[in-house]
Write a structure and sequence with these properties.
alpha+beta; 7-stranded mixed sheet; globular
Length: 127
């Protein structure tokens, strides 16, 4: 496993999640991509986009990548998200997150599976 600079496509995915404007980052996903977010299991790029719209639309959110590691087609990403309800923008909370991307062998690589954990989180502040 090596510590790497965060690939631009991952930074693009983070920006797309923050803005809910999907483009080149999410283009790495296919209709076969599976995402596991906590206990949720979502399949397909369009369904994954809809999932993020549902959970993030009520929030102002920014994902900051702190470190990135890779090994044999797997990328490990650790970061922190700063978030607040749009109706209460001054009540920010920060939550750690971990993303694990399993990639296929194509060029550019497509995302087969994403596993996301987040928290602990002061859920009363943002839910």
């Amino acid at each position: 496993m090596t510590r790497d600079a965060t690939p631009e496509w991952i930074l693009q995915i983070m920006r797309e999640i923050d803005t809910l404007q999907f483009g080149e980052g999410f283009a790495r996903m296919t209709e076969d991509t599976e995402m596991f977010f906590g206990t949720a299991r979502v399949r397909g790029a369009e369904a994954i986009k809809a999932f993020f719209v549902k959970i993030d639309e009520p929030l102002n959110i920014t994902h900051d990548v702190l470190e990135c590691w890779s090994a044999d087609g797997v990328v490990f990403l650790r970061g922190e998200a700063t978030m607040a309800k749009k109706t209460e923008p001054d009540r920010e909370v920060r939550a750690p997150f971990m993303h694990i991307y399993y990639l296929d062998d194509t060029r550019p690589a497509r995302i087969r599976t994403i596993r996301i954990t987040a928290g602990p989180l002061e859920t009363d502040t943002v839910m």
